[in-house]
Amino acid sequence: MTVNRRVFIAGLAAAGMAPAVSRAKSGMPGQLTLGEMQVMTLSDGHLTLPRSMLFAGLEPGAVDQILQARGVAAGAIHPPINVTLLRHAGRVVLFDAGSGPGFQSTAGQLTAALDTVGLAPDEVTHVVFTHCHPDHLWGVLDDFDDPLFPNAQYLMGEVEWEYWFDPNTASTISGDRASMAVGARRRLEAIEERLSRFGDGQEILPGVAAHASYGHTPGHMSFELRDGQKSALIGGDAIGNHHVSFAQPGWAIGTDQDVDLAAKTRFRLLDMLAHDQMQLIGYHLPNGGIGRVETAQNGYLFIPAN
Fold it and tell me: CA-CA distances (angstroms) from residue 123 to 2, 72, 85, 111, 117?
């Protein structure tokens, strides 16, 4: 299926006009305890995306039926941005860094969200990346293009790093994504000396294992948090919405770089989460993004914890 992928970078003039969801305004986190692990999600605000960016190539009537059943209003889509914070064994770990300044006016709120839970950026010890899209990576730099988390160590999957750090990516990626590749490399250069890379299945921190979930980007990683019998999956954008991707996991989503591989990854993760009753933490899922997956007719449902 050919999908028209107008990516976030284009500027989206309507972004500054869209109403923020109540949680994005308040910055209040969702919370989860896994043994000794204290987990919460912090709001970086939300994005504003035209439906055509996500659903081009899909039958509009079928998409509308799913969206209406999930309570999604007509018009543009406003996915929340949930950055996961883990406190464990003296570490303060962020999974992704939010959007930073200059991306969309409704995003870039992570610093304020950290303040609501009594943390300053210099207290963050580790930043772990799922992938290099702007709303996940660009927040590593502040308004002056200096690292926002000056004392942090950075961790990223080897495959993802190699793809976005390669200077040829900007000229070989689809044309509407070239500026995203340039922006990613600039930020990776700024943190290169403090960044470590890892592979699939590796325990990158105590109780944190990398889980390859390729497709949304070439090296996208999810992360399993585990303490004893309790576990949760930080899914990043491998499952990027709570409506179409749950109801019809096999349908192509326009923000996925490899739509076929991304669909296979979604099926695999949703089946695992439902079968194992593992909790899911989704970057763009509602109500703080923490919940569980249930099987439903021909698909799955996201059941928020809040």
Answer: 45, 37, 12, 12, 12
Predicted model pTM: 0.91
Rounded Cα gap, residues 88 and 206, in angstroms: 9
Q: Quote the distance between the C-alpha of residue 43 and its chain's center.
A: 12
φ, ψ for residue 304, nearest 5 deg: -65, 145
Looking at 6-10, 68-72, 91-95, which range is the least confident one? 6-10
**194-213: burial string, b at 16+ Cβ within 10 Å, e else:** ebebbeeeeebbebbbbbbb
Rg (CA), the chain: 18
Residues 6+ apart with CB under 8 A from 73: none
Cα–Cα distance, 196 to 81 (Å, whole number): 25
Count the residues in the chain: 306
Closest CA to 25 of 46, 3, 48, 55: 46
pLDDT, tens only, 230-260: 999 999 999 999 999 999 999 999 999 999 9
- Does the CA dihedral 181-190-94-276 come out positive or negative? positive
Task: For residue 216, count other CB atoms closer than 10 A to its CB.
Answer: 25
